[in-house]
């Protein structure tokens, strides 16, 4: 791939190469509640490091959706909440820790305190805005569509593009398409399509990957989606905004599993005139919120300023310990000011 230039900083990659050469035992940490990009980039990095002769382990702060568990290397992932002692011992004895697809220990869930105390050198690979200075070496680029795209460029910049085989390519492609809605947003850079073309040349079956991700849902998940659009949807036409609400009782009624609500927040954006869509999901001790927007509407500002979150201009997340009603009321209170500022 030499038509468009690799975007990884050459001086930083030299430092990364030194750290990799000096270490033997590596921890790879995706963010809590990992999505396709977090798991895909972690699995790609893990397989690459194993090929390089390193001892490496992915430790996910929490479980991730069933529709990602077909990915190559899935069985090698440790879930921190399923074995905290073993995971902490591994992290504390590591020479190097990769922080993948997040840029703040606050996004590391229950591993936040463990990572803050860990003495190993740390490398961040992430594409989200406003990274915190929590690592020794930071690869951060908001212009890349996904951390998986960054992972491809990271490996290529190390001179090991030939080590990206079909399995690694499947992981990288999964992160790219899930973080861009199938290349429908946050994907306007020509280099992205060059990377995708290279992955196809590695032999991936694009149709199979799409089927594994998008045609692999349970009947309960489909009924939950129907409930969201029928009973849980509120359209605020005057603000070009739609809200979906899911209560704890709704989740129980439809036998909710991790990942079942993935992508639900995008559906209202297909309504004519909608610029913003938000989903509020009530859990036992927190309300989780996903924000989406179109065009140049910076919905991440709302997530950051009012809901302890952040993200990209068109895709962000947040959370609050307020009640579900209080969370929705707060959003509706700040919405007019936000709308008028556009």
Automatic annotation (TrEMBL):
Pfam families the UniProt entry points to: DHH, DHHA1
Every DHHA1 domain range: 253-338
SUPFAM superfamilies: DHH phosphoesterases (SSF64182)
GO MF term set: nucleic acid binding
Residue span, DDH domain: 25-176
Family matches, as InterPro entries: DDH_dom, DHH_sf, DHHA1_dom, Oligoribo/pAp-PDE_c-di-AMP_PDE
Name assigned to this protein: DHH family phosphoesterase
Organism: Labilibaculum manganireducens
